[in-house]
Design goal:
alpha/beta, Rossmann fold, seven-stranded parallel β-sheet, globular
Length: 225
């Protein structure tokens, strides 16, 4: 029986690749993006396309209303943005605010809003797309302070939400998809999105509630916090 997968930020990059591969394997894909008119491929592949600004509570409320009564097996919180604050002296409140709203607050609040849909499903998984740049242990210089911190915070939210939702049988995970050739990753990235997402989906298929709260790479190996 096909599962239903909701993907945020599905207009390009990793989000679009999630849509492509989930649709190809027979999943019912609900694709969300800011402007569906600009993404004809998504409209062709997804079962349902919904306009969504993940940082806008009114937009989220509209999504919840549209999906009332629809079971969601996997919520893929993929939408994310990068800041330009790569060194001390370049930090700004606007970078922190914008990046945290999209990368940290939005996944938590969207997951909260869709808990009834997840509880009604069979798979019951929240997949937060994080980054190894969010690892405090393995942190490196040269990347956005706001982006790195927002992913660390998302990881912490994942752990806490995993504990809270275990009683409902909902699996909550945080994944690093690797450094991919996308608009955000740039042309120098070593990985192709199609390969990374294929490996990530295969890993997701092996997970159970016992894995909830883990921080994993695409091959299922654990990333140190």
């Amino acid at each position: 029986m096909p599962i239903t997968v909701l993907v945020t930020g599905s207009s390009r990059g990793l989000g679009l690749e999630f849509v492509r591969q989930c649709a190809a394997r027979g999943d019912n894909v609900i694709a969300t993006l800011r402007d569906p008119a600009k993404s004809p491929e998504v409209a062709r592949l997804a079962k349902k396309v919904i306009s969504l600004d993940v940082t806008d509570p009114t937009s989220v409320d509209a999504l919840v209303g549209d999906l009332k009564g629809t079971p969601i097996d996997i919520l893929i919180n993929n939408a994310g943005v990068m800041g330009q604050d790569k060194q001390v002296g370049k930090l700004t409140i606007n970078d922190f605010r914008t990046v945290f709203e999209t990368n940290t607050f939005a996944p938590a609040l969207l997951a909260q809003a869709l808990i009834p849909n997840l509880k009604a499903s069979t798979r019951k998984m929240i997949a937060n797309i994080s980054s190894e740049l969010g690892s405090i242990t393995q942190g490196v210089a040269g990347f956005s302070y706001a982006y790195n911190a927002s992913k660390s915070a998302l990881n912490r939210i994942t752990v806490q939400m995993a504990k809270d939702l275990r009683r409902d049988g909902i699996l909550v995970m945080t994944f690093c998809p690797g450094w991919n050739k996308t608009d955000m990753g740039g042309p120098s990235a070593p990985l192709e999105a199609r390969d990374s997402i294929a490996k990530l989906l295969a890993t997701m298929d092996t997970l159970s509630l016992a894995d909830s709260g883990k921080y994993l790479r695409i091959d299922g190996s654990t990333i140190p916090w």
